[in-house]
Amino acid sequence: MRIDGVEVAVLDGVYPPSEDTFLLIDAIRGVRSGRALEVCCGTGAVGLVAAGGAGSILEIDADPRAVANARLNFERNGLGGRADFAVGDLFACVRGRFDLILMNPPYLPEGEGDAPDMAWSGGPRGRAVIDRFIDGMGGVLEGGGRAFFLQSSLNGEGETARRLARAGLEGRVVIRRGFQFEELAVIEAFHAGSQKD
Ligand SMILES: C[S@@+](CC[C@H](N)C(=O)[O-])C[C@H]1O[C@@H](n2cnc3c(N)ncnc32)[C@H](O)[C@@H]1O
User: Fold this and answer.
1) What is the pLDDT of residue 21?
2) Which of 11, 15, 150, when mutated, tests ligand 1's pocket best, judged by the most ligand atoms within 8 Å of its CB?
């Protein structure tokens, strides 16, 4: 499929770009950065759009199939030279700091009897990955940097705001869209007091 001028192939077993992917892309279109990081990258669709305005980007996913898919897409779009790729859990293999961090996580609460899938399952309350992302983000985000991540109304925007505050971060919703059974929002987060507007 073609998204924002980049060609995105989807390999077997990898999360296909969906409404949440497109909402995050809408939120970050035109954002410029030096060193960017995308965790939970899937096909790399979001990172491909961000890479247009970034000096470099590191693409990470816990699923090796997703990382292979992102690498393929960056190479096919002539962006392989400014990207690095790693298989890993969130920030576990990250060194240094980034001025742009992106994440569309698995965020749906697991229902009884569902077979959990790493692509969408955020644990019993949908917060398993988001909470660890918030807790670790301060350590990898540059002083004046910004993170953009996806949040569903199914797993508590208020809880995200409280957790960000406990981590010394602030957040605000930059885009919101309603779907059949949930509302999705993209949260922009940054070190408390580091952004003027
Ligand atoms: C909802 S999909 C989003 C994929 C892509 N970013 C997009 O927007 O289309 C979530 C992705 O997170 C990955 N993932 C799940 N848990 C992870 C973790 N702990 N660390 C890194 N990636 C993870 C999954 O393999 C999947 O590719």
Assistant:
1) 97
2) 15
The span from the CA of 33 to the CA of 124, in Å, is 35
- Hey, where are the domains in the chain? 2-191
Instruction: Return the CATH class of domain 2-191.
Output: alpha beta
pLDDT digits (tens, 9 = 90+) for 65-74: 999 999 999 9
- pLDDT score of 90 more than 80: yes
Look up residue 153 and give its DSSP letter.
G
Average of per-residue pLDDT across 177-189: 93
What lies within 8 Å, CB to CB, of 50 at 6+ separation is: 28, 31, 33, 36, 38, 57, 100, 102
185 CA from centroid of ligand 1 (Å): 17
- If one residue of 118, 149, 154 were mutated to test the ligand 1 pocket, choosing by the most ligand atoms within 8 A of its CB, it would be 118
